[in-house]
Amino acid sequence: MSETELPEAQSRAIAQAVREALARRRLSRQALADGARISVSTLEKALAGRRRFTLATTIRLEEALGQPLRGPAAPLARLPEAPRHAPEELGSYSREGVAWIEGRYLTLRPSFGAADAIFAYRTEIAWDAPRSRLVFSEAERLDAPFAQSGSVAVPNQSGMIYLVTNWHGQCRLAVLCRPTIQGEMYGMLTTLHAGRGTQLTPACAPLAMIPDRAEAGGRAYGRIAPDQPAYAQYRPYLDRVREDGYAAFFTGPS
């Protein structure tokens, strides 16, 4: 046995506690592994008894689950549940109350780098059980290093949905109206645009998020120019933001 491996009996008890927590919270092993910052392979082998839990892995799992896994002082039946509601600053919502937002969305905004072009990518919204909140992540971006991820706020007071990125104090915010009957969400994005040289300029743009029910490979992503087939399909979604009053864009006197 290596120095960091736990005794076999304790490792078996931890495996049982983890399996029960996964079942009780309807949490996938992949999601738990991601939350604990370990590989799913490591988690699978430990749960199957093919390797023992290490102290470091156990501590990470405890942090991800928000409950102790070691010692007789914390019987399984009395282990605390994960919080059932999002933090107050995100709207104090329950998963059941926001399940209708979960899913994948084709996301559209004007291109900041080419006139009249549309920038298209995918956004996924999912429940993060260890942190008890909706989170979002972006993919299929032409500028992949700048893909965003963060938390979703759904306050009752405004009826809006907010996708919030806060990276070391640098914030980006998408403000969206509640979904239409087709599940579409419209609003605006506030972010930073790369200007001249290294200068960053505040920018605001209309934003449309369309439920992505197309088969793999059925969507066009990237910078969509007016002469591309997908442009005629995507353009009306962005036009709806202004035409249907989902967001207002004001300009001062010229």
TrEMBL record:
Domain of life per record: Bacteria
CDD domains noted in UniProt: HTH_XRE
Occurrences of domain HTH cro/C1-type (ranges): 18-76
Signal sequence, renumbered to the chain: none
Any one Gene Ontology molecular-function term assigned to this protein's record: DNA binding
Protein's recorded name: Helix-turn-helix transcriptional regulator
Organism expressing this protein natively: Methylobacterium planeticum
